[in-house]
Amino acid sequence: MRWNLISVRWAGVAVLLVLLALAPAGAQHTIIHAGRLVDVATGTVTSNVDILVLGNLIEKVGPDLDVPDGAREIDLRHRTVLPGLIDSHAHICLQPEDSVRSPVLYKTHPYRTLEAMRAARLDLLAGFTTLRDLDNEGADMADIAVRDAIRAGMYPGPRLFVSGWALTITAGHMNLTGLRPAVDRKLDQLAILVDDRDAMVAAIRDQVKDGVDFIKIYATGTMRHIDRDTLEPLSQLSIEEVELMVREAARWRMDVAAHAYGGDGAYNAVAGGVRSIEHGMFLDDRTLDLMVEKGTFWSPTMTVYLPDEGADAEETEFRNRVVQRHRDTFRRAMAKNVKIAFGTDVGSLPHGEGWQELQRMADYGMAPMDILRSATLVGAELLRREDELGRIAAGYRADLIAVAGKPDQDTAALRHVSFVMVDGRVVKQDGSAVPD
Ligand SMILES: [Zn+2]
Questions:
Q1: Half-sphere exposure of 118 (CA within 13 A, CB side)
Q2: Is residue 78 predicted with pLDDT exceeding 80?
Q3: How much distance in Å is there from the Cα of 218 to the middle of ligand 1?
Q4: 189 phi and psi, to 5 degrees?
Q5: How far, in Å, from the CA of 205 to the mean position of ligand 1?
Q6: Cα of 11 to ligand 1 centre, how many Å?
Q7: Is the pTM of this model over 0.85?
Q8: Distance between CA atoms of 392 and 130, rounded to whole angstroms?
């Protein structure tokens, strides 16, 4: 009997030691007193809840938790606390001016890397604690470098999942146009040009070796390729070609994201097995239905297609037709329960302005709580990280934000994020960035 009691006591000590060993060295407790806490999984809001954080993990959530000795206390009693937001379509290596002056012609890779570092920080301070970065657009390995520098703790930043160089076809999207051929052939392009099956497989293996998290392909062309009468985009890949790339990526346990506006190119991407469709403003019912059947995600990125200020009348009229279709597709996709993962295309939008897309989803009829889910739970599932990201619950990563107002009722509250914690580290408090 006595021996058993001692065993039980030692077993308890052993469990405690294991828990302590799992916590990062020097991990400290932080307790957050939340005035309102949004549970995106249940769609409910609870008042006066405490969140206990140890190191970079959430340890406990509940009312009136005991404050451990030496714990840091954070008072968010006048705020709504919610999980850190996930932007499923970002470009830290892209800046708004790059759409006018192609960065592969005018900027060095080191300069773009520094820009990317700054961009990641701006997006983080806007409440986006995780970014799925969809193509560095010719910035070599800047996205990988920034991800690794943040992971190594050199700089505070968002959790990054990056795709490195994307894959496209000659004359397609991301292939420079209008240059003298002799000049063009000497230049780095914005993506890797893959025109046959061997090149597709080889490019994926190169990306894996460089350290990407997933593969990005261009399944349709860009705006200049759209037929102005029918709005049919250029289809860049067959089902068989997409299947080949999805299969090769799967060998390395990686998913494939496809830029696809609609038409046959988008259908081929979904039928070929990609994890997500990006943009998709012209997705037809045939493709949306297949997406529901196959569980394909859609990241709509609607704001960046609005007409540019100062554009000529013809261009503005064209853009307005695109925007109208995008809004219609968004509503049909919602009605069909397509998995919509919030994505901004930030980089085309100024960094730190992701709230604009949150507001657009609200304006197009998505309920505020569904917008929050799209920017947390759905994004986490798309990344296959639903067990550690996108919720405030025991065992999840300590990524959380706070705002004044009620973002579960009015999305506009997300425009001004007052508090940001990423991986247990407070980077913004009372509306101001915390010095490193
Ligand atoms: Zn993009």
A1: 10
A2: yes
A3: 10
A4: -95, 175
A5: 22
A6: 52
A7: yes
A8: 14
CA 290 – ligand 1 centroid, Å: 23
Tokens 């925007």 found at:
323
3-state SS assignment for residue 91: coil
- Cβ atoms of 434 and 427 within 8 Å: the answer is yes
Mean pLDDT along residues 68-91? 97
What's the gap in Å between 154 CA and the centre of ligand 1? 27
CATH superfamily of 85-382: Metal-dependent hydrolases (3.20.20.140)
Average pLDDT, the chain: 93
Interval between CA 118 and ligand 1 midpoint (Å): 18
Q: What is the pLDDT of residue 369?
A: 98
User: Residue 99 — pLDDT band, cuts 50, 70, 90?
Assistant: confident
**Class of the domain covering 29-83+394-433:** mainly beta
Distance from the alpha carbon of residue 188 to the mean position of ligand 1, in angstroms: 19
Closest CA to 302 of 379, 362, 351, 255: 362
Q: What spacing in Å lies between the alpha carbon of 78 and ligand 1's midpoint?
A: 36
Tell me the H-state helices in 308-395: 313-335, 355-363, 368-374, 377-382
Give the pLDDT confidence score for residue 26 in this predicted structure.
Answer: 67
pLDDT in tens, 233-280: 999 999 999 999 999 999 999 999 999 999 999 999 999 999 999 999
Distance of alpha carbon 140 from the chain centroid: 20
SS3 364: coil
CA of 15 to the centre of ligand 1 (A): 46
432 C-alpha vs ligand 1 centroid, how far in Å? 29
Amino acid at 415: R
How do the domains of the chain map onto residue ranges? Answer: 29-83+394-433, 85-382
For ligand 1, the distance from its centroid to the CA atom of residue 21, given in whole angstroms, is 40
62-74 core/surface letters (b: 16 or more CB in 10 A; e: else): eeebeeeeebeeb
Compute the distance from residue 89 Cα to the ligand 1 centre, in Å. Answer: 6
pLDDT, tens only, 366-412: 999 999 999 999 999 999 999 999 999 999 999 999 999 999 999 99
